């Protein structure tokens, strides 16, 4: 009974360490990236709305773009590069140095100890990071609207809240949950099937990142098609 208690605490500590690493460890990168992506994207399209005299649509269009597509994709790409590559390299190193075999000898299931906490951490934290990315992008867009184009933040955020809907937030979170599952699964699989020495670790890490990116882009199209294709225009209420 005592050994079961020790093992439970061991697994629990490992799980929360992965949560911390994926979540808080990536938050600053997500916020900085989202801030500048919001600036650049707004810089490119706001002038077109000014030309069309459609200032009231700026916040709405940016909200739809960020919430449905840009924030989930941006957040996933950053986590693939930062977290997915790390997971693959770590597991690949354990594989080639026979540390995973040592876990079997110690009576520890590598799936429960190494794989499940990583996948679960990505599934739980990616939607939260996505929301941080979305909020940051909106504030950076409001900032550049006011500073460069003298668009009142009140007008901007009124447009945002007219278009923002719970169903879009829910679907955006569903997207990132699916992305998180496949990023974690692909990263761990490439790590576990690694063969050879340092070269094998490098090849597995590169293959993991490329496969994860392709998977996310393909899944994004499929999910967007089924989630948003049959919706009416969100601008009708304006």
Automatic annotation (TrEMBL):
Coiled coil region boundaries: none
Keyword Membrane recorded: yes
Keyword entries, A-Z: Membrane, Plastid, Transmembrane, Transmembrane helix, Transport
Main localisation: membrane
A Pfam family matched in the record: MlaE
NCBIfam families (UniProt xref): MlaE family lipid ABC transporter permease subunit
Name used for this protein in its record: ABC transporter permease
Lineage: Eukaryota, Rhodophyta, Florideophyceae, Rhodymeniophycidae, Ceramiales
